[in-house]
């Protein structure tokens, strides 16, 4: 990590970085990259890939219709309606 890279990152992320903090940021980013780089040392030869980290399957249920169609009853008690819709006064001319 160098100052040019930090300047580019700060420009792209629209962050203003003070010159006195630039060295600390370079050091912090180097530490983060070194920490993440440790993942390359992990032995994953005999490990099957996961499609879900929780290794659970989603519960399923039978898809039954349980709601009743109340369209006819609701249109009958509406102040104004036709066969299919509620009728409302025009508000935009």
Task: Write a brief structural summary.
It is built from 3 helices and no strands. It has helices at 3-12, 19-37, 71-77. 39% of the residues lie in helices and 0% in strands.
Walk me through the topology:
Layout: H1 3-12, H2 19-37, H3 71-77
Describe this structure in words.
With 93 residues, the chain is an all-alpha fold. It has a domain at 3-41: Histone, subunit A (Orthogonal Bundle). The protein has helices at 3-12, 19-37, 71-77. It is elongated. The model has no long low-confidence stretch (mean pLDDT 89).
Q: Given the helix and strand composition, which structural class is it?
A: mainly alpha
Please outline the major beta sheet.
Answer: none
Mean pLDDT: 89
Q: Helix segment count?
A: 3
Stated plainly, the CATH topology of the domain at 3-41 is called Histone, subunit A
The CATH architecture of the domain at 3-41 would be Orthogonal Bundle
Counting DSSP E segments of at least 2 residues, the number of strands comes to 0
**N-to-C terminal Cα separation, in Å?**
64 Å
Helix content: 25-40%
The low-pLDDT segments are none
Radius of gyration: 31 Å
Could you state the order of secondary-structure elements as H and E? HHH
CATH class of the domain at 3-41: Mainly Alpha
Percent of residues in β-strands: under 5%
Q: Assign an overall shape.
A: elongated
């Amino acid at each position: 990590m160098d100052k040019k890279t930090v300047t580019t990152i700060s420009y792209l992320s629209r962050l203003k970085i003070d010159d006195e903090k630039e060295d600390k940021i370079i050091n912090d980013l180097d530490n983060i990259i070194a920490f993440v780089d440790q993942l390359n040392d992990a032995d994953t030869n005999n490990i099957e890939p996961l499609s879900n980290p929780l290794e659970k399957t989603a519960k399923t249920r039978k898809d039954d219709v349980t709601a009743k169609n109340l369209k006819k009853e609701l249109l009958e008690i509406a102040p104004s309606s036709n066969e299919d819709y509620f009728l409302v006064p025009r508000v935009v001319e």
